[in-house]
Predict the structure.
Amino acid sequence: MTVGERIKAIRKSKHMTQKDLSYKIGVAANSIARYEEGRRQVSVSILERIANVLDVDICNFFGKEEKKEEKHAKWNINPDGYYPYCSRCKEEPPSGIMTKYCPNCGARMDLEE
Protein backbone atom coordinates (compact mmCIF):
# COMPACT_ATOMS: atom_id res chain seq x y z
CA MET A 1 0.00 0.00 0.00
CA THR A 2 1.37 3.43 -0.95
CA VAL A 3 1.47 6.52 1.26
CA GLY A 4 -1.40 8.01 -0.77
CA GLU A 5 -3.51 4.88 -0.37
CA ARG A 6 -2.90 4.96 3.38
CA ILE A 7 -3.90 8.62 3.56
CA LYS A 8 -7.12 7.79 1.74
CA ALA A 9 -7.89 4.76 3.93
CA ILE A 10 -7.28 6.65 7.17
CA ARG A 11 -9.21 9.70 5.93
CA LYS A 12 -12.20 7.53 5.01
CA SER A 13 -12.04 5.68 8.34
CA LYS A 14 -12.41 9.10 10.01
CA HIS A 15 -15.45 9.86 7.78
CA MET A 16 -13.73 12.88 6.25
CA THR A 17 -13.96 14.07 2.65
CA GLN A 18 -11.01 15.25 0.58
CA LYS A 19 -12.47 18.74 0.76
CA ASP A 20 -12.69 18.59 4.58
CA LEU A 21 -9.09 17.45 4.86
CA SER A 22 -7.82 20.01 2.36
CA TYR A 23 -9.55 22.83 4.24
CA LYS A 24 -8.11 21.73 7.59
CA ILE A 25 -4.51 21.49 6.33
CA GLY A 26 -4.67 24.52 4.03
CA VAL A 27 -4.21 23.03 0.56
CA ALA A 28 -6.41 22.81 -2.53
CA ALA A 29 -8.90 19.92 -2.59
CA ASN A 30 -7.41 18.59 -5.83
CA SER A 31 -4.03 18.31 -4.05
CA ILE A 32 -5.49 15.69 -1.69
CA ALA A 33 -6.77 13.72 -4.69
CA ARG A 34 -3.32 13.89 -6.29
CA TYR A 35 -1.60 12.72 -3.07
CA GLU A 36 -4.01 9.81 -2.70
CA GLU A 37 -3.68 8.77 -6.35
CA GLY A 38 0.12 9.01 -6.26
CA ARG A 39 0.23 11.73 -8.92
CA ARG A 40 1.90 14.15 -6.51
CA GLN A 41 4.46 13.49 -3.78
CA VAL A 42 3.50 14.61 -0.29
CA SER A 43 6.04 16.76 1.53
CA VAL A 44 6.91 15.89 5.11
CA SER A 45 5.41 19.14 6.39
CA ILE A 46 2.07 18.41 4.65
CA LEU A 47 2.18 14.81 5.85
CA GLU A 48 2.66 16.05 9.43
CA ARG A 49 -0.38 18.32 9.07
CA ILE A 50 -2.44 15.45 7.64
CA ALA A 51 -1.37 13.21 10.53
CA ASN A 52 -2.36 15.88 13.07
CA VAL A 53 -5.78 16.43 11.49
CA LEU A 54 -6.45 12.69 11.20
CA ASP A 55 -5.13 12.17 14.74
CA VAL A 56 -2.63 9.45 13.80
CA ASP A 57 1.11 9.01 14.11
CA ILE A 58 2.93 9.94 10.90
CA CYS A 59 4.43 6.41 10.86
CA ASN A 60 0.96 5.06 9.99
CA PHE A 61 1.40 6.42 6.46
CA PHE A 62 4.46 4.21 6.03
CA GLY A 63 2.83 0.99 7.21
CA LYS A 64 4.09 1.10 10.76
CA GLU A 65 0.79 1.14 12.58
CA GLU A 66 0.81 0.67 16.31
CA LYS A 67 -0.28 -2.74 17.40
CA LYS A 68 -3.24 -2.72 19.75
CA GLU A 69 -1.31 -4.43 22.50
CA GLU A 70 1.35 -1.70 22.29
CA LYS A 71 -1.02 1.25 22.69
CA HIS A 72 -0.93 1.00 26.45
CA ALA A 73 1.93 -0.17 28.59
CA LYS A 74 1.84 -1.15 32.24
CA TRP A 75 3.88 -0.30 35.24
CA ASN A 76 5.41 -3.59 36.32
CA ILE A 77 7.37 -4.27 39.48
CA ASN A 78 10.98 -5.42 39.21
CA PRO A 79 11.71 -8.93 40.48
CA ASP A 80 13.05 -7.50 43.73
CA GLY A 81 9.55 -6.10 44.25
CA TYR A 82 10.53 -2.49 44.74
CA TYR A 83 11.08 -0.31 41.64
CA PRO A 84 8.36 0.03 38.96
CA TYR A 85 9.34 -0.12 35.29
CA CYS A 86 7.54 0.46 31.98
CA SER A 87 6.49 -2.70 30.13
CA ARG A 88 7.24 -1.02 26.78
CA CYS A 89 10.66 0.60 27.21
CA LYS A 90 11.69 -1.39 30.32
CA GLU A 91 12.90 1.81 32.01
CA GLU A 92 12.20 2.92 35.54
CA PRO A 93 10.45 6.26 35.95
CA PRO A 94 12.55 9.03 37.55
CA SER A 95 12.20 8.95 41.32
CA GLY A 96 10.13 5.74 41.07
CA ILE A 97 6.92 7.77 40.58
CA MET A 98 4.27 5.96 38.53
CA THR A 99 2.44 8.44 36.30
CA LYS A 100 -0.27 8.25 33.62
CA TYR A 101 2.37 8.49 30.85
CA CYS A 102 5.84 6.97 30.89
CA PRO A 103 8.31 9.86 31.15
CA ASN A 104 10.88 7.83 29.20
CA CYS A 105 8.95 6.65 26.10
CA GLY A 106 5.63 8.55 26.39
CA ALA A 107 3.44 5.42 26.44
CA ARG A 108 0.07 5.77 28.11
CA MET A 109 0.23 3.66 31.22
CA ASP A 110 -2.33 1.33 32.72
CA LEU A 111 -1.51 0.91 36.36
CA GLU A 112 -1.17 -2.72 37.26
CA GLU A 113 -2.62 -3.71 40.60
